[in-house]
Write a structure and sequence with these properties.
It is a single chain. By secondary structure, the protein is mainly β. It has a single domain, classed as Lipocalin (Beta Barrel), CATH 2.40.128. Helix content is 0%, strand content 61%. The chain contains no helices and 13 strands. Strand 7 and strand 8 form a beta hairpin. The radius of gyration is 19 Å and the shape is globular.
């Protein structure tokens, strides 16, 4: 504001930079990948009036098919992007997402259907509008190191597929 012919600061508020779910809008669409004898399809769409990205994944390996549903939201108290995942075998997971210079990471904690605690760091790295890589590192199951996954190249599926 201007006071007495001088510019003065009337109000200053500092707040941490908060991630927006709109920054993940590039994920909306149909995706697929195959790796190590497995193949998967993923559909990401907006749910609840475009407030929450909803991801549904179907994976096939050998004769077994599994599904997972994940919803992302901004936590109203912390401003952090978080997700909850529900898998067809009864496993449950949650993650806190963070932007990186190249994409996004998610610090994941979950409980398997057998009750084992699992952790991982998931990384999504966009390559272009139709491609990104998925990687899961720092994986543990009940405190024991598990093998890393990826990076796996994920591509946008053609419309209707």
């Amino acid at each position: 504001m201007r006071s007495g012919g001088k510019w003065r600061l009337g109000l200053l508020r500092e707040s941490p930079e908060v991630a927006s779910l709109q920054e993940l809008a590039w994920l909306v669409g149909n995706w697929s990948y195959s790796s190590d004898g497995a193949e998967a399809r993923m559909v990401v769409e907006w749910a609840e009036g475009k407030k929450y990205p909803l991801c549904r994944t179907t994976s096939k390996q050998g004769g077994e098919t599994t599904t997972a549903t994940q919803i992302l939201a901004v936590h109203p108290a912390t401003g952090a992007v978080q997700s909850r995942t529900f898998e067809s075998d009864g496993s449950l997971g949650e993650a806190v997402w963070s932007r990186t210079d190249k994409g996004w990471t998610a610090k994941v904690t979950s409980v398997t259907a057998d009750g084992d605690k699992a952790t991982a760091t998931t990384t999504l790295t966009p390559i272009d509008a139709n491609t990104f890589t998925f990687q899961s590192t720092e994986r543990t199951v009940d405190g024991e190191k598990a093998a890393d996954v990826g990076p796996i190249k994920v591509t946008r599926a053609a419309a209707g597929k």
